[in-house]
Specification:
Order of helices and strands: EHEHEHEHEH
Distance between the termini: 9 Å
Strand content: 15-25%
CATH topology: Rossmann fold
Structural class: alpha/beta
Strand order of the largest sheet: 2-1-3-4-5
Number of strands: 5
Number of domains: 1
Oligomer: single chain
CATH class: Alpha Beta
C-alpha cells in the first residue's frame, strides 16, 4: 500500500511540481491550499507525512505544525517545511514546533524525495 503525503502550499505551481515528483516515486498525494484547508482534510484518511510551506494566508505553516501536533492521530506524523524562508530563526521556530526537515525553495525534486524517503519509507 502506498503512503499518503499531504502538500500544503498556496502556490498551485509548487503543489504541482511536488505532486508530480511524489506520484512518480509511488506516493499518494493530497493537496491543501493553506493550514486551515490542511487541517480539514486530515480527517479524511491517514496521512503519513506533511510537506508544508511556511508563508500562507489563513494559517501559516508553523501554526499548522503546532495544530497538527495537538491531534492524537497525527502527533508523530513527520512534517517537512518547504519554503523560501532560509532564516535560522524561522528554522528554529519550525523545529521547536515539531518540523522534522527544512527544504528551501527553489528545490530539486530528488532532494525533496530524499528527505521524504528518510522520514517515510515507501
Amino acid at each position: 500500500m502506498s503512503k499518503t503525503i499531504m502538500i500544503v502550499d498556496d502556490s498551485s505551481s509548487v503543489r504541482q511540481v511536488v505532486n508530480i515528483a511524489l506520484k512518480g516515486a509511488g506516493y499518494t498525494v493530497v493537496e491543501a491550499v493553506d493550514g486551515k484547508d490542511a487541517l480539514s482534510k486530515l480527517g479524511q484518511g491517514k496521512v503519513h507525512l506533511i510537506i508544508s510551506d511556511v508563508n500562507m494566508p489563513n494559517m501559516d505553516g508553523i501554526t499548522l505544525v503546532k495544530e497538527v501536533k495537538k491531534l492524537p492521530d497525527y502527533k508523530f506524523t513527520p512534517i517537512i517545511m518547504l519554503t523560501t524562508e532560509g532564516a535560522e530563526e524561522k528554522k528554529r521556530e519550525g523545529q521547536q514546533a515539531g518540523a522534522k526537515a527544512w527544504v528551501v525553495k527553489p528545490f530539486q525534486p530528488p532532494q525533496l524525495l530524499k528527505a521524504v524517503s528518510m522520514l517515510v519509507p515507501a
